[in-house]
What does this fold into?
Amino acid sequence: MRHLRNIFQLAWPRLILGCAIVLGWVTLSVSGLAGQLAPAPAHCHLDFHGSEANVDLIGHRNVGHGLDFYSMQHEIALGQSEAQQVIQNSKLITDPEVNEYINRIAQNLVRHSDAHVPFTVHVVQNSTINAFALPGGFFFVNSGLILASRAEDELAGAMAHEIGHVAARHATRNMTKDTLLQLATLPLEIAVGGSMGGWGGVLAEQGANFALPYQFMRYSRAAEREADWLGTQYLWNTGYDPEGLIHEFQHIEKLEVERPGLMARAYASHPETPSRIAETQCEIARVLPPRPQYVVNTSDFHRIQHRLARLIHMHLASFRTRAAQAPHKPRKFQPPVLARPKPAGKPAAPPASPFTGGH
It folds into this structure.
């Protein structure tokens, strides 16, 4: 009995600390995430309220404010470091016309958004239909997205979604929640591990780690829904047809049917596409004032598409030509090995049948 009392006296402060951290995290997160974590409603219901629903205040709203351990300067430095790694490991499109066009779209969207960091834009030669923005405004647009888009408002819609991630500071806010969750599970691991020893500590650690991926998936999907919400507003505020984002979603939905494995991996953290379409339609109907006309396409869009396709084709053709012209060094002739050598003093094993499931 005395042993149990000593264990409790050692463990209870750590357990109280863990409970306090969890309670604080839930309290700080529930206002911004409670509605976002719920499944997407079938009817027209707005999950975002307050300033995020007031498009007249875009650029002067509390988007991105909340619990965050990272200063804006730290966020930019973090994104710059990550961007350097992306640049070193990617094939960038260096054509000035393509880069000027994509940068022009991006900067125009940024000027009509809630982002407060300068954006640096790169075009990556990658066939994946995607774009991604790192913390601090380091923005990468894949050639696959540019070539797959059917109009400029679709391309701008996908880019506006990524700008929404940066404006809401999703990366550093999720890293902050990651830190809090790890701190919250630490007292449990120490207390249970110290009192039970051996398998008790191992099981506590495994149980805590099992909960983390589920939490991250919820954060990620909540962040994607907020980025959809903000991106639709930025698209509208820039003068594009906000339906362009819906058309992009519909294009993704079609590709999910045609290439289910590839698209499932690329958009695993996103909400279901039909839900994204329904929620964006709801936002357009309920939040965005209609305008007499919108920008859907420009003459530059198809010109840049054709130029980009031609550049990629020329690059691939040049690569194949260089490979064909490379000097071929014939290997020194060696007779083929027709059988494995027999081990000394042991009978040879019978050859494996191809139908027995060998390596």
The chain has eleven helices and three strands. Residues 47-174+219-311 form one domain.
